[in-house]
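Feature request disguised as a bug report, sorry. It would help if multi-protein outputs had a clear separator. Right now it looks like this:
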Amino acid sequence: MYISLVEFFIVFYLLIEQYVFESIQSYQTNSESKHSFFEMVEQLDVEDCKSEQEVHPLVPINSEEEDVKVAQVSELDDGAMDLLTTLESEFSMDKSTNEVGYHGEYMEHSDADCPPLWIEHEIDGLIVEDDDCLSINDINVEEHVTIPETKYDYKTAKIKEKLYGSQQWIVSVIGKEVSYLHVSDGERAWINIGIDEARKVSKGDVLLLDIRREENGIQVDRFITLETSVSDDYVIPDEEIYLDSERSDRRIAI
């Protein structure tokens, strides 16, 4: 359906008319509102906002003038004047010598009364001053003290070598009797380490021994436990089965 040209112009005219009408109405409304606003402003009574600030002095001022009291100074009598004169004479300065008028007692000393700061000596025709300082002669040379050597050089050895002197063994404990240990590194030997130390060692332990072998026997200087066997004091639950089986095998062997 097509709109004819006449209908189009009619619709366009109505739109323009509506726009012009609303514009005129809006202008009139704004003019009336501005006019009423200015009328209300003219009707307002504007008062002067300025006001005088009152001054409050910090110190109160008396309206009535107070009487000023004048201090009266009395004249000094003869005793006061004598005292003043005495003080002036004691504290006065002698301008010619720039010294205080009061002179104290003093004593004179000569160079003979003072001790000498240093003493001169003649050594080999030379004058030597005895100063208060150290010389090479003041140093006491102590005799050299020889400290005996107590360190032993432990060399690795085997029991079967039967060497004399300080040596080191790595052995396993195969038996124990009171303070003696029966040790072996392929060759067996008995050593005495003392009752207290023997209690710390168990059968099957691996020891590092620092010993001194002499003609009269073997002396143990020190031992270190390198490996220890499982005991009742410390048993892993999984190893308890193997420990019990090992004990039973030993009983059967006996």
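(second protein starts here, but nothing in the output says so)
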Amino acid sequence: MPPLPVSYYGALFKNMFTVECSIEFLEEMRTHMSLQVLEKDNQKQFDLTPFVNQHVYFIRSKTSMNHIYRVLRQMGIRTLYVVDDERHLLGIITRKDVVRYKL
């Protein structure tokens, strides 16, 4: 079965998440929801340490796409940070970016 065209997904997405309501209704809901938040809920914290990447890989802005592709594949990483000569962050390049370029 062939995949559905992108236009189909766009229409489906709109139908799933479009809601008709007034501004007054939204304000009333916001007030109601904020009243339900307890003070202790504002104090909760999550330890995100297990999810933090301790190893940051970066490349210079003049690096070729072929080299970037090889680094991503060999290192098994999904993102590389692009920096200038002073190591200031210029952007992030992902596997998807490289694949789009290769096509």
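Even a blank line would do. Unrelated, but nice: The radius of gyration is 23 Å.
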